[in-house]
Q: What sequence folds into this?
C-alpha cells in the first residue's frame, strides 16, 4: 500500500513536469491546474485509508473498506493488464 502511494505521488511529479510550462500562463481554476489537483487527490484518499487499525472507529474502517479495497481489487489489476483501458 505504501508503494502504491509512493508510485502515485511520483506520477504526480511526472504530470507536474509535463504541465509546468502551461501552468505558468494559466489561472489556477483552468483545466491544467485541475489535472494537477486531481492527480493529488487519489493518493491523499489512499493515505487516509492507511489510518485504519484494529481499534479504529467504524467510520474509518468503513472508509477503507469502500474506497481502498475495491479500487485495488478492480482498478489496479485492470490497469496493469490493459494500461490504455483505465476506467
A:
Amino acid at each position: 500500500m505504501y508503494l502504491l502511494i509512493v508510485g502515485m505521488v511520483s506520477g504526480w511529479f511526472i504530470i507536474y513536469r509535463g504541465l509546468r510550462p502551461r501552468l505558468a500562463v494559466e489561472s489556477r481554476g483552468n483545466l491544467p491546474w485541475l489535472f494537477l489537483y486531481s492527480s493529488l487527490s487519489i493518493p491523499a484518499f489512499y493515505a487516509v485509508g492507511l489510518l485504519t487499525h484494529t481499534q479504529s472507529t467504524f467510520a474509518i474502517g468503513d472508509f477503507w473498506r469502500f474506497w481502498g479495497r475495491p479500487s485495488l481489487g478492480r482498478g489496479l489489476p485492470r490497469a496493469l493488464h490493459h494500461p490504455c483501458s483505465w476506467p
